[in-house]
Structure formats: C-alpha cells, structure tokens
Amino acid sequence: MKRVLVDTNVIASFLTDRNATQQAKAAALFEAAEARRVEIVVAQLVAAELVDVLRNVYAVSRVEAAATLKDLLALPGLRAVGTLPWPRLFELWPGVVPDFADAALAAICEAEAGSAIATFDGMFRRRLARLGIPSHW
C-alpha cells in the first residue's frame, strides 16, 4: 500500500474552505485512505503545526483544536509518527531545504521507504524533486 506523508497545508485545506480546488484534492486523498488504497502518515510536527494554524489563522479555540486533531488522527487509514531522523534532517536543513518542517518531512519520507509527500507548496515540491523524493501530486 502506498504511504503518503501529508504537509500541514493539505490537512488545513481538507478541514477548511480556504481553497476549493485544494480541498477537493485533499478530500480525495483522505477518502482513498478510508478505502485503504493509501495510508496517510501524519508526522508529529505536522500535528503541532496544524494546531498552530487552527489557533492563530482560523481563531479556533484550544478545545476545538484538540477535538479536531483527535478526530483527524482517528480517521481510518491514518498513522501518526513521532520519530524524526535527526542526522538526515541536519543534512537537509537549513542548506538544502530551508524550512525546518519541510526538511523534517523530507527526512521522514526517506525513512518511510516507498512513501511520497502530499503538499500544495510548489517550492517544496521542486526541492523534493531535486532530492529524488516523490510528490503525491
């Protein structure tokens, strides 16, 4: 089964109406996970970033953010990971991939053999391509 690490922007698009096109793509990915056609991998740092985005961009209360994250992580076809390959992270960040969270996702993806990353960030996708890390879209 294909594994797809999701960037924070994918989950934010899934949960909000910030961009209808992105929301539809994210929803299709989550539906594929529910049908067990893919496994969505949510890195611990993505969960932390998501809470920050919900709280600070969308003014969601702590209680609502906690409930949202709990419900998200309980969805079928999702797996949360907390392990970060620190040596590889420091090979990538800050020189090759300047954003810490993006570098961490790239390092985790490399450790999760056969994985791809779903992101709506075009610059990050280009960096992934240069590293030979597949993008989901």
Radius of gyration: 14 Å
Q: Give the overall shape.
A: globular
The CATH class is Alpha Beta
* CATH evolutionary superfamily: 5'-nuclease
Oligomeric grouping of the chains: single chain
Task: Write a structural description.
The protein is α/β, with parallel strands linked by helices. It has one domain (2-129): Rossmann fold, CATH 3.40.50.1010. It is built from seven helices and four strands. It has helices spanning 8-15, 20-34, 44-56, 62-73, 86-92, 100-111, 122-131; strands at residues 2-6, 38-43, 78-81, 115-118. It has a four-stranded parallel sheet with strand order 3-2-1-4, with helices on both faces. The radius of gyration is 14 Å and the shape is globular. The two termini are 17 Å apart. The mean pLDDT is 97.
Summarize the structure.
This protein has helices at residues 8-15, 20-34, 44-56, 62-73, 86-92, 100-111, 122-131, and strands at 2-6, 38-43, 78-81, 115-118.
Relevant terms:
single chain; 137 residues; alpha/beta; Rossmann fold; 14% strand; globular
What topology emerges from the helices and strands here?
Elements: E1 2-6, H1 8-15, H2 20-34, E2 38-43, H3 44-56, H4 62-73, E3 78-81, H5 86-92, H6 100-111, E4 115-118, H7 122-131
Parallel strand pairs: 1-2, 1-4, 2-3
Helix pairs in contact: 1-2, 1-3, 3-4, 5-6
